[in-house]
Amino acid sequence: MNVLVIGSGGREHALCRTLQSSARGEPLRLFCAPGNAGIEEVAECVALSATDVSALADFAVRERIGLTVVGGEAPLDAGLVDEFERRGLLVAGPPRAAARLESSKVFAKDFMLRHGVPTARHRVAASVAEAREILRGGVFGGEDTSVVVKADGLAAGKGVVVARSRAEAERAVEELMEGGRVGSEAGRRVLLEEALEGREASLLLWTDGRDYVLMPPARDHKRVGEGDTGPNTGGMGAITAHGVLDEETLARAVNEIVEPTLRGARDEGLNFRGVLFVGLMLTAEGPRALEYNVRFGDPEAQAILVRLRSSLAEIFEAVATRRLGELNVTWSDDASACVVLAARGYPECPETGARIHGLGEATLVPSAQIFHAGTSRTPDGSLLTAGGRVLGITATAPTLGQALERCYASAARISWDGMHYRRDIGRFTENSRQQEHYREQ
User: By CB count within 10 A, which of 151, 230, 232, 366 is most buried?
Assistant: First the structure.
């Protein structure tokens, strides 16, 4: 079967490698558009933009692509699934109407309220003046109250600010709506939310519109600096382990958030098929939905997929043909971790073009896998940095502590001018008992 993966980051590298390594029976001929220097080792890279919907559909018809897997949110928002289905092409992903669960934070919040999904209190503002009025009106508390400010549209991980005070929230509103931080369309409206307290977790699942299969719960690390400091990024690392969600909390998240969401999508005719990502805050009152993504997270995908034991192609094919209920999806019992190596200046202004050293030695660490997120190759074969997040060092082990040790041992063998990464991925500071619990898991 010919399979096309759309995207160019670490998530897509993990998808391509897992599709190849988990193939059963019929051999796969794998394409990736546009791909990167790491992906080209496992797939044929195609020089097409991930959002050039018409050209991608033409390619899929010409190459007799039997299944297309969409990595990121932008192609879904551009209507790729709608166009592929119009041409009779099999594709695993939600149509544009369903992708609004991610492409519009306001739509997602209203959807949660319509279907009784527990979430944070919020208000919507269509101008800086309206946002100031809401903030100064005391809706979320006084001057020193934390407020979450979110751009309504897609913003490549740059559209969320956790403001520690009203003044900081007002500055964030100005940057998002008038400062060009996320683009005029994404910042046309902002969502103002109460700041919930607790630990975050990510719950991902495949669904064919009727049935669903949960993936191992994950936790990502968004801020660029250790101790969760500095600006938000697309993700500096992720873990999966038994302790991320205990059984009781997982059951509540499924019953109170996942199933009402899927039921609501059916009731509203959204025809949601693909990957649903639910960002959770684990509060003292129970899990609350922070946001939806309509695709794999990055780097959650890397940490999750290294634990998959079933055929990924079979899963996506079942998602696209509404046969997910027929599959028995299995996972490794190991824990996993992914540590992102980033370029100097990330996330604001990353430097590119630095020569990367040590990849060969890094792969010698047991179970370590290196996923390319932003790399390019010179004519002589040298590897260069080509983005803010450059590599994702991923490993599995019986315990989370061992998986992290393997990630950091591998990362220590890699170097380039300006490389930086967080050294506290998977280590928690709420209290020593919780920290030790995760280390043992």
Answer: 151
Beta strand 29-34 with 2-7: parallel, antiparallel or unpaired?
parallel
Structure tokens at 416: 């380039």
| d(C-alpha 69, C-alpha 349), whole Å | 30
| Residue type at position 251 | A
- Report the alpha-carbon distance of residue 237 to residue 178 in Å, rounded: 31
- Outline where DSSP puts E strands in 286-355: 286-293, 335-342
Nearest CA to 20 among 37, 4, 43, 36? 43
3-state SS, 247-273, equals HHHHHHHHHHHHHHHHHHHHHCCCCCC
Contact by Cβ (8 Å): 399, 212: no
The closest alpha carbon to 216, from 199, 200, 204, 201, belongs to 204
Question: Which tokens is 350 given?
Answer: 């990353």
For the chain, the domain total comes to 2
Instruction: Assess contact for 51 and 78: CB atoms under 8 A.
Output: yes
What is the secondary structure of 115-177 as a DSSP string? TT--B--EEEESSHHHHHHHHHTTTT-STT--EEEEESS--TT-SEEEESSHHHHHHHHHHHH
CATH number where 179 lies: 3.30.1490.20
Distance CA 277, CA 255 (A): 15
- Residue 428: pLDDT band by 50, 70, 90 thresholds? low
Question: Is the Cβ–Cβ distance between 303 and 336 less than 8 Å?
Answer: yes
Q: Are residues 88 and 6 in the same domain?
A: yes
Other beta carbons within 10 angstroms of residue 183's beta carbon come to 16
Q: Are residues 19 and 63 in the same domain?
A: yes
Classify residue 310 by burial, with Cβ atoms within 10 Å: 0-12, 13-18, 19+. Answer: middle
Contact present, 236 and 226 (Cβ < 8 Å): no
Q: What domain range includes position 173?
A: 127-188
Phi-psi label, residue 144: left if phi above 0, alpha if psi -120 to 50, beta otherwise: alpha
| pTM (two decimals) | 0.93
Return the structure tokens found at 75. 């192609």
Q: Are the beta carbons of 356 and 375 closer than 8 angstroms?
A: yes
Pair 407, 368: CB distance under 8 Å: yes
Same domain, yes or no: 87 and 8: yes
HSE of 246, CA atoms in CB hemisphere, 13 A: 8
